[in-house]
Design goal:
- This protein is of the alpha+beta class.
- The protein has one domain (2-98).
- The chain is 24% helix and 34% strand.
- The protein contains 2 helices and 4 strands, in the order E-E-E-E-H-H.
- It has helices at 72-79, 82-98; strands at residues 2-5, 21-24, 26-38, 58-71.
- It has a two-stranded antiparallel sheet with strand order 1-2.
- The longest helix has 17 residues, at 82-98.
- The chain is flat, with a radius of gyration of 28 Å.
- The chain starts with a strand and ends in a 6-residue tail after the last helix.
- The model has no long low-confidence stretch (mean pLDDT 80).
């Protein structure tokens, strides 16, 4: 998920050249759904073979229009976590040695 800043200011009507910005807001990991009952036909419980007061129901997942998102600042915290920083540095050094690009 990204945010995009327009160069046009709605409040003043001013336009700034070169001020467009695209920024990472976060990573979408899924949609939040809500179970909604489907009512096909209501029949007496005894006819359906259910105990008195019971009834059988079918459900579908309704999209709520809300997404689960990992915010960009949490991703940055993860990427800057010291063990991960060291693992990336080690991998980079080993890659450079394997591919002959390391300083000799």
């Amino acid at each position: 998920m990204f945010t995009f800043t327009e160069p046009w200011d709605m409040g003043t009507g001013a336009t700034q050249i070169g001020s467009q910005r695209l920024r990472l807001l976060g990573v979408d990991w899924g949609q939040i759904v809500h179970p909604v009952e489907i009512k096909e036909r209501i029949i007496p419980a005894d006819m359906a073979g259910l105990a008195p007061g019971e009834r059988e129901a079918k459900f579908v997942a309704l999209n709520t229009g809300m997404n689960g998102v990992v915010p960009a600042w949490k991703l940055l915290e993860l990427l800057n976590f010291p063990p991960l920083v060291e693992a990336r540095a080690t991998y980079e050094r080993e890659w450079m040695v394997r591919n002959g690009t390391a300083d000799t």
